[in-house]
Write a structure and sequence with these properties.
eight-stranded antiparallel β-sheet; about 280 residues
């Protein structure tokens, strides 16, 4: 290279490509070019982000917005909690699963129809704002034990103007948010993107079917004017319809719903998301 300097812009491009996900159909994470995200951990002055690999307990049932830094986790005994956890129904659980290489969290939403388990990163807001547009990246890897008997939403969702978490499946709709879902009991079990603003939803079914106990990597990228949705590193589709770009605060959100009483589960390997500051 002689005396050529590796400029900041070029270096960031190299880091994004090194950090990219392979564009394939098997949920691989081999680092080849596909969906790519900034190495936000290396550029904290430019990006704000969240990465949870679920190798340690990072959620409590009493985490609230603007929680007290001194007293927040006295009841749970856990400091540094990221997720506010809700698990409903009979014998629900949200547990680390050490049988999964690299760590994962397993959600069991009770054992009855419409039981829900939810994780919400209540103090980690991001924003899609058309008046001051900043790019956002979101990626996760998950699998369902029985795709015909359960549903999920994962992405960014509003926690509303009060302490109420914006539920996405059980109450029949997403108020404000963006992400991926499978509707509880839908006939064709394919992954679908969802974007919602002020209770107006746009749901787009992909052509990629979900399979029992099979990992899938789901991602989306907001480029400032349009959302691009990826499955296993390959672009599925793009849309700007009902994307919540009105400045609403959106937080990372994981929700799993049980359709039957079969004790079905959802595993989430990791959640990684970031936005420009």
């Amino acid at each position: 290279m002689g005396n050529r300097r590796l400029g900041a812009k070029r270096l960031e491009t190299v880091l994004k490509r090194m950090n990219a996900l392979a564009a394939d159909t098997a949920g691989s994470r081999s680092g080849k070019r596909g969906f790519d995200m900034p190495a936000f951990e290396l550029q904290p002055s430019k990006y704000y982000g969240l990465f949870d690999d679920f190798t340690a307990v990072s959620g409590v049932t009493d985490l609230a917005k603007d929680d007290d830094f001194v007293l927040a986790h006295a009841a749970s005994g856990l400091c540094g909690a990221v997720w506010d956890v809700t698990a409903g129904g009979t014998s629900p659980s949200v547990l680390l699963d050490n049988t999964v290489v690299g760590g994962a969290v397993k959600l069991l939403a009770g054992t009855a129809d419409d039981d829900v388990a939810r994780l919400f990163a209540v103090n980690n807001p991001m924003v899609l704002d058309a008046s001051s547009s900043r790019k956002i990246w979101f990626e996760t890897r998950l699998k369902l034990s029985d795709v015909d008997a359960s549903g999920f939403f994962i992405g960014l969702a509003s926690n509303g103007s009060d302490a109420t978490v914006d539920t996405s499946i059980l109450d029949g709709g997403l108020a404000d948010g963006i992400g991926w879902q499978i509707i509880d009991g839908q006939a064709a079990v394919t992954f679908a993107s969802i974007a919602a603003t002020n209770d107006g939803e746009t749901v787009t079914q992909s052509s990629t079917s979900a399979a029992d106990a099979t990992w899938a990597v789901l991602a989306f990228h907001w480029d400032g004017s349009q959302a691009h949705y990826y499955i296993n590193g390959s672009l599925s589709h793009s849309s700007a319809t009902t994307v919540p770009n009105d400045g609403t605060l959106l937080c990372p959100h994981i929700e799993f719903i049980q359709q039957t009483g079969d004790s079905d589960t959802m595993h989430v390997d990791y959640v990684r998301c970031c936005m420009e500051r």
